[in-house]
Amino acid sequence: MKNVFAAITALLLPVLASAQLSISGKITNTSGEVLPGATITITNPSANIVADAAGKFSFNDLKPGNYSLKASYIGYQPVTKNINLTASQTVNFSLGNGVMVTDEVTVSATRAGKKSPTAFTNLSKKELEKNNYGQDLPYLLNQTPSTVVTSDAGAGVGYTGIRIRGSDGTRTNVTLNGIPLNDAESQGAYFIDLPDLASSVDNIQIQRGVGTSTNGAGAFGASINIQTTTRRDTGYAELNNSVGSYGTLKNTVSLGSGLVGGKFTFDGRLSRIKSDGYIDRAKSDLKSYFLSGAYYGKNTLIRVNVFSGQEKTYQAWNGVPEDTVAVHPTYNGLGLESDGKTYYNNQTDNYTQNYAQALITQKVTDNLTFNGALHYTKGFGYYEEYKNTDSLSHYGVTPVTIGGTTFATTDLVRRLWLNNDFYGLTYAFNYTPKQNLNFTLGGAYNEYRGAHYNNIEWTQQSTNIPPDYEYSRDNARKNDFNIFAKADIKMNDVTLFADMQYRHIYYSFLGYDRNRNNVQQNASFSFYNPKAGITYQLNDQSNAYLSFAVGNHEPSRDDFTQSTPGSRPKAENLKDWEAGYRYSSAGVNFGINGFFMDYNNQLVLTGQINDVGGFIHSNVKDSYRAGVELDGKVRITPQFYWAATASLSRNKVKNFVEFIDNTDTGGQDEVKYGTTNLAFSPSFVGSSELNFVPLKGAEIAFISKYVGKQYLDNTSNETRKLNAFFVNSVRLHYSFKTNVIKNIGIGLQVNNLFSEKYSSNGYTYSDIEGGTRVNYNAYFPQAPRNFMASLSLGF
Fold this sequence. Notes:
The chain is mostly beta strands. It has five helices and 47 strands.
């Protein structure tokens, strides 16, 4: 029997040696409070996971051996434990207050927390890196709820756009380290001015609806809060290269010192992106750099960021006429010379934007922290275009007589310049007198100086004008001040939230006065934006919330410069109700959010011409957005998970009135409607990602996106719409390491796998000709099946 037992034991030894064990546990602070979202890193092999809502974690399918576990959480000191694993173990961590101020504190004042009564999504650096093949930042956010992205060039490089809950970039508040990124006048966020920004981003939070108080323009659909490079304790060097369809090429070099002397870090990045674009003559040539240095003390953090983006893009923002899309979807017929055959090769947009940020976080006492930032942005550049047989009188040029013939028109090349400065400061005091009470006082003061001037570079006919003849100039100034106070108090399982913001804007611009003289004008606004909410913690894994918020938003530059005081639109007002439920466990994360956004005086295009002949946004008295958003992620097996979102909504404007130019009468016809759909607001948006890890370091993801029908205007007319589309893509990735290279990553992304024919954006114009309405629709077709391949090396 002894011999039999010995033989059986010998046979089972290999099986026992390969037994799959686990390490699980719970993360708390020294007061015993759980720390959901804490990061736990394990070595041999290296991996990390995030603690669930109960602070629990689990590493499964481990072999016997020695492991090192490290638990870390914002504001706490990391703890490392070494484990000799011979059987499944429970390992708990208790984290004490951190000895250093962390980078995450610098954006905490403008972010929603895990118990905030707000609909939000957090994206980590790791999640962003998965899709960062060179496409613009909006494309990295495409799988978040209620999001639709667009590309002028059709392949995601060049001018891109993002709409969240049907609201475009001018209604989306974007901050970079808490500093406003939206253009002060147009209010849009132009990510093309920061090519490859994602390679220097640590994390992003997207808040849908009004959200919490932040700096800059009001959030009328959403806010995007971006945090750039944070501390990395070890030095690194990374090379990331991508190549793909339509001549797309991305090269990125990143370097970092790690923590030097326990106090300092230095990081840098240099990038370039090139693409021919899917649309004809839609090339992009983009360059950028990012430099950051930080000092970490026990109670002080100082970080200085200097970065820049330079773009040269050929025009693609005019779209493709409707009658051409079916036969030649890449056609770009604008920019023709007078012979109707030759294209003007320098029909380009050229712009450079330089940024400087100085951020400081100071721990004043154990209960009081101060965050402050100084910032300066310098932007300059021009758009050059060829104009056919244009009237000289438009440019203040006297008609010329040559050989007895008087020329009142000529072909010409003009440059439209923008030279602007944006600077200011932001601040926030965070006071936590008790564990169940948190109070924040913050705000900002920013100034904008923008010079808009236009030059003639060349004329077909001799006009005796000097080189770079300046025919117009508009100097604008905008001051933006805000102050907010927010507090949340925890009472057992209930957390109450209150937030109040005051914002004042002063805007000076060249515009029409009451007598239609074009002289310097000004406008002022004062907004009060209250918010309140309640969150109930049902158990360690779930909570429910309800909130109400008010947002106000001023008109954009064109609404002022192209109108008189008697016809200028009013500011918009939004009352936003949000209610939801969140659940989080080790294998399942799920959220459902209902919203009702009630607009007063929302600004939309109606086609109406104002008293100076300009098309500006008009106020519609009553409109709303109401819907339900779902997002979730379920880990079906340790190697396989499914993440999905779905947004169902009604987006309506009541008693809409459309104005149409009548070429027969020289006036405008008025068409009255009942309740119609808001433009570019699909009733359903959904996404899905099926992710499979067949072996260590390998990943296969099948990614899907569905966007319902969208109307190009607010009339709900079926002849002026974007058809629904369903796009599927595949992402493959494999990473490994050698003795010399810490990480080698090989990736392949095939976009629009089944070559769906669709347009994600467009516009329309109508008039009446010979008693008949004629529609002029244009679309932005997106690329059929295309690919991007990447190779990354980490040292």
